[in-house]
Amino acid sequence: MEREKKMKVAVIGMGYVGLVTAISLAEVGNEIIAIEKNSTKLEKLKLGISPIYEPNIQEYFKKYKENIQFESNCENLNEDVKVIFICVGTPENKDGTADTRSVYEAINEIINNNVLAKDIIIVIKSTVPIGTNKDIEKLIKNKTNKNIKIVSNPEFLSQGTAIDDAINPQRIVLGTDSKETIKILKLVYKKNNRKYVITDSNTAELIKYACNSFLALKISYMNELANICELINGNIKDLEKGMGTDKRIGKYFLKSGVGYGGSCFPKDTKALVKLAEREGYEIKTLEAAILVNKNQRIKLIEKAKKYYKNFNNLNIAILGTSFKPNTDDIRESAAIDNINILLNEKANIKVYDPVSLEIIKEKYKDSIEYSNNIDEAVTGADLCLIFTEWKEIKEYKLNNFVKYMKKAIVLDGRNCYEINRIPKKMIYEAIGNKKR
Ligand code: UDX
Q1: What are φ and ψ of residue 398, in 5° steps?
Q2: What are the per-10-residue average pLDDT scores of the chain (436 residues)?
Q3: Which string of DSSP letters, residue by residue, matches 147-208?
Q4: What's the gap in Å between 216 CA and the centre of ligand 1?
Q5: 158 CB near ligand 1 (under 6 Å)
Q6: Burial 159-195 (b: 16+ CB within 10 A, else e)
Q7: pTM of this prediction exceeds 0.90
Q8: Among the atoms of ligand 1, which is closest to the Cα of residue 165?
């Protein structure tokens, strides 16, 4: 049988989404040209080193690197490229809207490349405000005679499981009214068992915001229930089981804690509020979820105030600084908000995180101390605060808190331990649980 001809696909932006997209598209046999402007990142990529931490990424990267060529800009794209994925960042503006400048920069670079074929498809994977795909279409019509089709194809990958999420997506959303574009993208995504949701570009863009916001709503709802559990002496973990076994509710994203963080939920929830506002609509459920999250993030400090009136000169151990386990990402991590408050109140802080310590060091330099392991972090501490449910933290020998801390007061923002396992000499409070 004649071997299927490889499709040449470009991916612009080698952040989490871009690199993982490039690897997953190479995995199904496409030939990738990956573009990254940042020269330090580009050098690493060329050497086969992933600039991001993600479980299994290095192995996958090594396996498919041969099919990925790295370049610094779009000038090096030639007429063989049929499809271009835009995966650049859309960070939050000061007013909560999304900053789409990098997306438009990429579009302009593509328009100004005269070597590219006349018929190309641009796939917008970056999370963009509703209407952006339509605006780009208009811009292209005004600026070039090329037959460029735009398709919205939002990304749903989670940090920590990004490779698997991209290789085996639960669905692929395609927002376009062009049948030909859908046909070609199905060739790019190749595998037969894919589930597609085909819609217009505005709805596709909204699906991304709607999913992240719905999950954020779920979390804030559970956090409010956790607060009620504390008032009625209930148990949030049992409540979670009682709810999660109902298929209509589902068992995921019901974990209470110190709120959601990361590069997506905080940014996308605010952006959806802004988008609704732009259309003259107030999305009250989401506004409430954002407010609940803001308050939830400082729950441990509130709890700590019961034990210490102020934190001046207090030795505080912080366990976990990444916004969730299995990532080194500290963006919008609850630990950061709390470290800042504690520093302001002149506490002595010692942190431990299995992966993000180097990034934390860059941020806080010598204003806090860093530990190589949990024992070291908790030694001599008056208080220990847990912000990330790393496996290592969950499996820590609880008696060691008693053994090493000056006062074994552990406040756990991620419900890492079963209450009945807590040693008698340890004061332990989690979120939404009976205290011990
Ligand atoms: C999220 C979406 O899940 C993903 O589909 C999208 O593409 C990007 O945003 P990510 O930011 O990687 O992914 O992390 P996620 O696992 O969703 O967690 C987000 C935050 O919610 C974390 O801070 C996590 O600790 C918190 N969370 C999650 C909870 O507090 N409770 C839960 O039950 C689940």
Answers
A1: -65, -30
A2: 73 96 96 96 96 92 95 89 96 90 95 87 95 95 91 95 95 97 95 93 97 98 97 95 97 97 94 95 98 97 96 98 95 97 98 96 97 98 98 98 98 95 96 80
A3: EEEEEE------TTSHHHHHHS-S-EEEE-S-HHHHHHHHHHH--TT--EEEE-HHHHHHHH
A4: 8
A5: yes
A6: bbebbbbbbebeebbbbbeeeebbebbbebbeeeeee
A7: yes
A8: 5
